[in-house]
Amino acid sequence: MIRTVGLVSLSSGMLGEKSVQHELALGIKRLKNLGLDVTILPHALKGTAYLKNHPEKRAEDLIRAFTDDRIDLILCAIGGDDTYRLLPHLFSNHQLAQAVRQKAFLGFSDTTINHLMLHKLGIKTFYGQSFLADICELADDMLPYSFHYFKELIETGRISEIRPSKYWYEERLDYSEKALGTERTVHKNQGFELLQGAAKFKGEILGGCLESLYDIFDGSRYPDTVDLCQQYQLFPSLSDWQGKILLLETSGERPSLIMYQKMLEKLKTTGIFSVISGLIVGKPVNELYYEDYKRILLDTVADRTLPILYNVNIGHATPRCIIPFGLMADVDADEQVIRFP
């Protein structure tokens, strides 16, 4: 059972900006109403500019969160785009390796990179929600589907199974204080969709945001990304990927069809599609390019025997489940369930 949550800003420093203080207050209130104590790590509220210029301080907070015995769950404030810059501050002198112990770690988006860092050190993590994106939902309550999985995590320390949400929600255009108490536009969800391959497959799940994975191999966003990720061997080896299920989901940037294909093709050059046991793919935000992404996936993978489960409620589209990394998953598309026995 989780009693104390540690809030960290490992990517964007948005949590410290004045524009989100109404969200911060709301989120802390919700956590406390769940019976949780909240510890905000020392630099988590330093703001966007400070944390952009001080990746070493973000790294310090992560190390402190692992070494603080009071903290049971490390909860990421939000994603961003440059958490790779923590690599030398966590790995050059085995700093993170000396600090880590098995405890719950939850985040998504750019936090994909942090998940890979922790995977290198044998730490099991949880992918799919963050503080600002989920706990601080501006409606009167958290989205029910998202709340179900967060509540299960804090009460049991695990996720037993994932089923589709009955609904999906359009993304908000207004996150200001005047949006407090407003509901999202809701649509009926069609459930998991098996695009190809066997309806039942299994393996440990690993992966995350497609754009974050692509940046490991492409320096278009930041020129030093590729060198740093190679230096610290961030992307798992093919032997590590053997038999795993690759999770892919797209960001709120809603990549164009050309970019989506380019990112998938870059991943394919690693050989990953030839060794994994299956693919789990998140719902696109607002269902934009829903059918087009399916076609590109099938054409790029080009192996009709590889199971691909599509439209899973994970990643940037709301609502969001939570997926454990590092645990065996049994996928059953016919029964519409992913189990973690």
From TrEMBL:
GO molecular function, one term: carboxypeptidase activity
Xref: Gene3D superfamilies: Class I glutamine amidotransferase-like, LD-carboxypeptidase A C-terminal domain-like
InterPro entries to which the protein is assigned, alphabetical: Carboxypeptidase_A_C_sf, Class_I_gatase-like, LdcA_N, Peptidase_S66_N, Peptidase_S66C, S66_fam
Residue ranges of domain LD-carboxypeptidase N-terminal in the record: 5-128
Pfam families reported in the protein's UniProt record: Peptidase_S66, Peptidase_S66C
Protein family: Belongs to the peptidase S66 family.
Protein name: Carboxypeptidase
Annotated source species: Streptococcus pantholopis
